[in-house]
Amino acid sequence: MKNHLKPSLMCTLIALGLSGISRGDDLPPQRGLDNVSHDQVELRGGFWGPRLEIHHQTTVPHALDALERNGHVTNFDKAAGTFDGELRGHHAFDSDLHKTLEGAMYSLQHFDDPDLRKRVDGILDRILASQQEDGYLISYFIVKGLENKWSDMRLEHQMYNAGHFFEFAVEHNRLDGGTKALDAAKRFADHIDGIFGPDKRHDVGGHEEIELALIKLYRATGEKRYLDLCRFLLDERGCQHNVKEHQRYDPNTPYVAPEGEEGDERRAAMLKRLRTRNGRMQDHKPLVEQTEAIGHAVRAGYIYSAMADIARFSEAPEYERAVDQIWQDVLGRKMYVNGGIGTAQYGDEGFGDPYLLPNKTYCESCSSIAHVFWQHRMNLLKGEAKYADVMELVLYNAALSGMSLSGDGFFYQNPLQSDNGGERRSWIGLACCPTNLARFTPQVGGFVYARANKQLFVNLFAAGEAAIKMEDGKTVKITQDTNYPWDGKVKLTVSPEEESKFDLCVRIPGWALGNPVPGDLYRFADQDTAPVALTVNGKAVEAIPGRDGYVHLERSWKGGDVVELDMPMPVRRVYAHEKVLENTGKVALMRGPVVYCLEGVDNKDLDLFKLTVPRDSDLTAEHRADLLGGVTVLKGQGLDENQKPVKLTAIPYYAWANREKGAMTIWIKEPESATGADR
Ligand code: FUB
Ligand code: ZN
């Protein structure tokens, strides 16, 4: 199949304006920055362009085929009464379909593909055929018995399914203003709003997600009740559930089983455990009192995203305070060097103890995706580049690793070390990761820019063009020419609709200033940095960022103005904080935002876990257009276990497990003499 790219963004925006079609113009936030949504940004060429094509050509149809094969669509037919076969899967099955459809909507923003559009709308019709009179829309419970709906809030993912449907519906509307899915989402959300709320039932879902989706629904519809429902669900976490009024949860109160479940001791014990400190769902105490990242890492990423959003879209300083502290905890003590989160130390797919970061770990693909969403929202809330630094780190490393280069192989877990290698699977029964990846990749354009009053922020460097609507309604076209992340040169051509004064805020990445991450969890061995060069229309400008991490270029911009950024990209050795005992005496390699690993296939006959890289061995970067879709590899000399010099090749971590199976490691030993006091 051939990809048909849509006409340029500028043409599309003008055409939509003339046609009078209304498309999801999101409500702006009360404070902080506004996002520039993916539909205003076209990534072409460079690093991301080919990935978006693979996503469109391979990932979306592959995922839809798998979902159809595995009963995710016929479950809705069953619920609508048009299918006689069995209901398949589990209670979160709907969410996998919604996520993939959401991914297809992003793709359709950029590729003209009537067949895919027809396929999505055909599935949407089958979903909607099962929607109940009262708006309820979860196939599993419609089939199993509606008398059980909303009965098990902790273990079954009803609100989670709903949230994913809302997100799909918002994007379905954004594409061309069609309201079919959005109307259904509103009916479903109104149904939920009719049951849960301050004067109604006080309860929350076990797997967070609906909270951030409600904010999207609020922004797309302008209906404040969705924002209020989000706030209610945030406020109720850590409180007594299934009650009629707001009550603080007391861990010492005996567990009261819901009607019909009395006497089920095993279940009672499990439900009680879920509310303990490491009990998965961030439900052990009110969110505004939480200061540490604990529990299931995917759920955590989603709820922290919603906390950041509620502080941006309403008056909620207590949520900002809490999420700030949690952020410090993650960045200071609980994040892997590649941006991954979640060690599953407590068997809960969750965060572990501070500094306990084993390299053979869990790091679910979904937790990296949730982590990107969270860091993106932190950047928007605080307007500081350091959050975009982390977002970029997760994006190019832990998150990208989840999917094969071919777009149809997936990891659930993403360890930093593997003795025997890993094999991505073409599908995973518990399909949260493949389907999350199917909706994540095409959202990247939406992370590149942000805007505020008379300010335009460049957060990521990615080849392509954007047509960004500023507050005054005027459009600024901005083009990026770059081969980032392989090269630190970026050319930005800025063309406002008409000459206008605004502040172009260009992020200078932490890695270019000598810091692999904000904080001291990881550091470069060598703090020396070559200066970043910046020019505007060929004239040198100081590239020293302000306290917010951006260089502010405030001037009157006119068509064709050019900003050029040149960030030297040396190979960097990275060390972990001394409390991360797992990595004592080991070094990781980075270049720009990319974290590297050694893989067996490039380092034949070497024991990756015994060889060492002396501190003074030269490491050089070499671009290999023919390898792994085009990557820059690192070459250097190491010592094998017999101290014999050997040649080493490191590849970007995200690209591992795309060739023959073999060992892999991000952290490499240093010879003992290099690991003493001089570190
Ligand atoms: O429960 C839904 C998703 O499935 C979670 O986010 C993942 O961890 C997996 O358990
Ligand atoms: Zn997952």
Roughly what is the average pLDDT, rounded to an integer? 94
Main beta-sheet annotation: 10 strands, antiparallel
Radius of gyration: 25 Å
Overall morphology: globular
Number of strands: 22
Separation of termini?
Answer: 54 Å
Uncertain regions spanning at least 5 consecutive residues: 16-23
In what range is the share of β-strand residues?
15-25%
List each distinct ligand once: beta-L-arabinofuranose, zinc ion
Number of distinct helices: 16
Structural class: alpha+beta
- Portion of residues within helices: 25-40%
Notes on the structure:
With 679 residues, this protein is an alpha+beta fold. Among the domains are: 40-223, no CATH class; 448-507 and 533-566; 571-678, no CATH class. 33% of the residues lie in helices and 17% in strands. It has helices at residues 9-19, 48-69, 74-80, 93-110, 114-128, 139-144, 158-176, 180-195, 210-221, 224-236, 265-274, 297-313, 317-334, 365-382, 385-399, 432-440; strands at residues 34-35, 41-43, 417-418, 449-452, 455-458, 464-469, 475-482, 489-496, 500-507, 522-524, 533-536, 539-541, 550-557, 561-566, 571-576, 586-591, 594-599, 619-624, 631-639, 645-652, 664-665, 668-669. The strands form three sheets. Strands 3, 10, 15, 16, 17, 18, 19, 20, 21 and 22 form a ten-stranded antiparallel beta sheet that branches. Strands 2-6-7-8-14-11-12 form a seven-stranded antiparallel beta sheet. α2 (48-69) runs antiparallel to α4 and α4 packs parallel to α16 (432-440). The longest helix has 22 residues, at 48-69. Mean pLDDT is 94; it is low at 16-23. Residues 92, 157, 207, 298, 349, 364, 366, 430, 432 line the site of beta-L-arabinofuranose (FUB).
